[in-house]
Design goal:
The protein is mostly helical. It contains 10 helices and no strands. α5 crosses α10 and α8 runs parallel beside α9. The longest helix has 26 residues.
Length: 171
């Protein structure tokens, strides 16, 4: 992992931002992460990632959300790198294996959620069954928009942490 951290620290600004965008689709977050380099260790990467994420605006969060495909789909609204697309497929693998009726319920829930809140349903899906995802989706539909924005931002933060780990393991 030290090798990957050294590589990340030594990248050009453009290349570094591209690497960080694989983890989080907010261009402001990727730029600030790049500016925060060099990182001494993985813990420093994570703490900066969390601190920067928490300092961003809702517009930055929404930009990050658009970089994800809807649960059960493969294509995001915004352009994704090949690596980010591959990670999304892995993260949603349990949802892809669901029964047809569960997939249909998730698709309908996605539509209702997006109509209600104005952004896609974001959840850290890694390790969650389709039924767990559907249950969370249905629970979160009852939230007010402000509460749901904070919850969605927290889910994005979890996804970002997981992807940073993958980035620093694989390069």
């Amino acid at each position: 992992m030290d090798k990957e951290l050294d590589r990340l620290n030594s990248l050009s600004q453009t290349d570094s931002e591209a690497e960080f965008l694989k983890c989080c689709g907010s261009t402001r977050w990727a730029k600030r992460m790049t500016e925060a380099r060099p990182f001494a260790n993985v813990e420093e990467v994570s703490s900066h990632a969390d601190r920067i994420w928490s300092s961003l605006t809702e517009q930055d969060w929404l930009q990050a959300f658009r970089a994800h495909p809807k649960i059960g789909e493969r294509k995001a609204a915004a352009a994704q790198s090949q690596q980010a697309s591959s990670w999304s497929v892995q993260e949603q693998s349990h949802a892809q294996q669901a029964a047809d009726e569960t997939k249909a319920a998730i698709a309908e829930g996605n539509r209702v959620y997006e109509d209600r809140f104005g952004f896609i349903f974001i959840i850290c899906a890694s390790g969650k069954s389709a039924e767990e995802i559907l249950s969370s989706l249905n629970e979160r539909l009852a939230h007010d928009p402000k509460t749901e924005m904070r919850i969605a931002a927290g889910e994005q933060q979890k996804i970002t942490r997981l992807r940073l780990e993958k980035l620093l393991q694989s390069g």
